[in-house]
């Protein structure tokens, strides 16, 4: 069971989408209200949704006919890094352009007990399905990072799964790891969506297929696939470090790191279309616009 938000007669509307793709309008204002109501009633979110849609008519349209909104206005989006071997190798390359002669920060963090976790975005910097992600004006090496996103409550419990794009500037990060916040955080540098899959309906989060495609002038320019079974860390390990001595807000999203990196010569350009698909969650599509657009 997935939860989406869409525009209905000018207003934001919450809805549940079952495995057959049928859409049922929900009365709650947003995903958090749904989770909170389930908590108050001491039932699971899935039970609550099933009760609400029982005997109700589904909408007569398909999800791709709706104008979707970001499924959650996450107050904060955090991100874990170097959680896949592929990410470690890509960072090593961008930091040394192939001149690798010693253990780097990235090798060390890949094996360390403490994971890399950084503040990636806020609601105002995050776009939803169909939205425009923006390029930085001072970078010539920019890529999307397709990642599984964990939707958390204030205690760090995983209440849902979504798709995230951790837009990144490889040249800025490669120049100096202390530039990480600038390589990661700027206007419209993060996207989430198109849906949140209720956590209890995901059998095995360590077996989700991730596919990413980038189209340029209507032609596929890059494609990559990965599986969350390649993840070095456990999801609970990441959330435990995130909540440690921290204040977390309901609806915080934690991106779990990328395993798909385009070829080194590739950089995003205005007009590109990015697709990120994760099995059981959906396909997040965004359009790339140049700096200042
Ligand atoms: O070390 C920098 C960030 C890594 C990251 O974002 C990732 O591995 O996905
Ligand atoms: Mg990332």
UniProtKB/TrEMBL annotation:
Gene Ontology biological process terms from the UniProt entry: small molecule metabolic process
GO molecular function, one term: metal ion binding
Keyword ATP-binding: no
Keywords, sorted A to Z: Hydrolase, Metal-binding
Domain Fumarylacetoacetase-like C-terminal: 90-289
Family note: Belongs to the FAH family.
Protein name: Fumarylacetoacetate hydrolase
Source organism per UniProt: Paenibacillus ferrarius
């Amino acid at each position: 069971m997935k939860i989406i938000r869409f525009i209905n007669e000018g207003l934001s509307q919450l809805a549940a989408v079952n495995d057959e793709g049928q859409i049922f309008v929900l009365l709650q204002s947003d995903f958090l209200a749904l989770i909170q109501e389930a908590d108050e009633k001491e039932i699971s979110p899935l039970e609550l949704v099933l009760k609400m849609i029982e005997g109700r008519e589904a909408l007569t349209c398909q999800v791709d006919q709706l104008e979707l909104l970001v499924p959650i206005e996450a107050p904060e989006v955090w991100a874990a890094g170097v959680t896949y071997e592929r990410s470690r190798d890509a960072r090593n390359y961008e930091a040394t352009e192939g001149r690798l002669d010693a253990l780097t920060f990235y090798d060390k963090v890949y094996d360390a007990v403490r994971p890399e976790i950084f503040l990636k975005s806020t609601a105002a910097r995050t776009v939803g399905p169909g939205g425009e992600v923006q390029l930085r004006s001072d970078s010539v090496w920019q890529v999307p990072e397709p990642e599984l996103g964990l939707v958390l409550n204030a205690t760090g419990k995983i209440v849902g799964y979504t798709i995230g794009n951790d837009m990144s500037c490889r040249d800025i990060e490669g120049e100096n790891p202390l530039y990480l916040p600038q390589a990661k955080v700027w206007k419209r540098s993060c996207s989430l969506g198109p849906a949140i899959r209720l956590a209890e309906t995901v059998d095995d989060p360590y077996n989700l297929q991730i596919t990413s495609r980038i189209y340029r002038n209507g032609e596929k320019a890059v494609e990559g696939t990965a599986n969350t079974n390649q993840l070095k860390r456990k999801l609970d390990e990441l959330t435990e470090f995130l909540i440690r001595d921290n204040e977390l807000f309901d609806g915080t999203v934690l991106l779990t790191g990328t395993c798909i990196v385009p070829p080194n010569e590739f950089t995003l350009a205005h007009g590109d279309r990015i697709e990120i698909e994760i099995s059981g969650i959906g396909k997040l599509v965004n359009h790339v616009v140049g700096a200042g657009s």
